[in-house]
């Protein structure tokens, strides 16, 4: 190799050959032109040989398939038409080596696609990254690897755009030796990706770089000089049997069509060849898909996207359940001899597979060393065992086992493992023994075989029925699943009324403080006080110990009301149902219900402040009539607005607590009783939770309604603050009015407070009834304006909220419209309707 390369350069030197390059001093020289010229020289100066045997028809078919798999059907048809014209031209002036031209175009196309992914280091080492051609041209320096890289020498070599290739034997020999060493290494260390591609070539009757057809043995062989494991070599030979069969079929078609219209072929023989050719077309499509997967390592269609399983030699070989299924298809034969032979063969082939099924459904053991079973397991945490620990492998599911039966087999083994790992229960063994007895089989090995599909199905059904029932009994009785669901409803969904009311009362003052100043330990103590002061104290201690205070992430401006929440600690195996994502949804529902209860609590507090007996008209006897009328008008407006808000909150709370929570809980309880396995239980709980979320305006399609509702809540809380200020001022005014009737007054202090324009209602002390009346009128006027603004905003928001209800998807939300729409206060708001 080194001598050959050196000889080539010396030949060029003797003949004075030159290479025309763009002059770098010429400003009109295009960068693209320089790159293209360098690329062409790099290809033409290559001494490497192609990696596949010369066959113009085969390479044309490969190009056409490649275009078709890329979705370029029109280009594939155009290429086929051009190739037909190109191949038909013979004689003087035509191209003799047509295959070389096609191969060159294909190689250039592939090389251009991979040009961005190639590194300069591999180019300068003497080989092209994807084509396998020597990179004699140095893309960075603009010179050749075999030419001196000295900048001054290059500059001296330029002569009117022509570079004379000088003799530099030492550099040439160094590059040639390095190329030869890399070539030897490449030829003796072959990656699996390259072998897969060669096998796919062999399946099309084409010799690859390492796998070639040997006429002496009449088969495809991997060269002995290639260093691969013995198992890999055997696998390649097995797969290449398909290529041998392809050559036989293709040869028969070509031979018959060449002899047509000979009598021994005839029209029937021609039709048979046409049918075979159609089958080969489907065969080509399959190989095109496999070839595309070998070039672009994407997961197979039958695998999940995150399985990490790609096309390999092992996946090209049928094995396990897939092999049993393929043999089973051949057993469906009308010839009794063939049928009996295939049946006997399948009895032996399926024996390990049926033993895996027996071991899985009766013992929960996955004895699958070689990944041949249609159930796959993976290591996961205990809480994820049921959902993620096991799954079906569709590629290994034999055709004589239905999808429904396979799902039942999967669930039965999962149930045993769930009982063993998560519940620490051993009662499933008795259930498995009873199932085997009921199905008329045995728990020992070898009890099932091919042809006993009915017995297999009977065993699986009996085992699933008993083991699933035992699992539900363990969940309900030992781990008290129903009681925990009820506890979550009572505490996280605020169904325990006396507990919620007492909790609101004792944590209210604490939660009114900034969130970053509140102690979680103090709140935990208040929670315990609320439990002891309500009927919650009679619950199971295990349930109460799981109830905890949780402070959500908060900013500097948040109050305790905004970040306070309760959480429920669901441990194994309950966390199989109450996963982190499920508890996050419960937390979201709690936050909504807590805000609703807070608004209700605020309105109750406002009512306590507004009690009619708190204010007497005799207190304002000394005030002017206009001020007294203004006071009564303000109080009436405040009372009417409270009535409207209270009516809205009461109806909304009734809807949430009864028509949403209670109805959903009733349906969930019925479905829990009807559940036959853990999957049914999980589905029932998911349905229960989804029902609450959708009906409570927390669904994705109710976000606008949800935001409007929370603005209404904030407005009601603002109204509560306004009521407190109003009645605080009225009580202060009432006390000062009574004071003005007393002869003993501090006139100096009164004048000072009267002149202080920033004085609050509590500083109303004046030296006369006129000043007191003036300040009272101003205060009531301002409070009346604020009430009017709140009432106007509330009416607008409420009307917007109600107008969005008819377009909601859930039917119960439309019934909420009737409850809020046909009311006395709504008619008062809209007297013209």
TrEMBL record:
Pfam families: GCP_C_terminal, GCP_N_terminal. It is found in: Cytoplasm, Cytoskeleton. GO terms for cellular component: microtubule; microtubule organizing center; spindle pole. Coiled coil: none annotated. It comes from the Eukaryota. Residues 483-826 form the Gamma tubulin complex component C-terminal domain. Its main location: cytoplasm. InterPro entries: GCP, GCP_C, GCP_C_sf, GCP_N. Residues 9-32 have a biased composition (Polar residues). This is Gamma-tubulin complex component 3. It comes from Vitis vinifera.
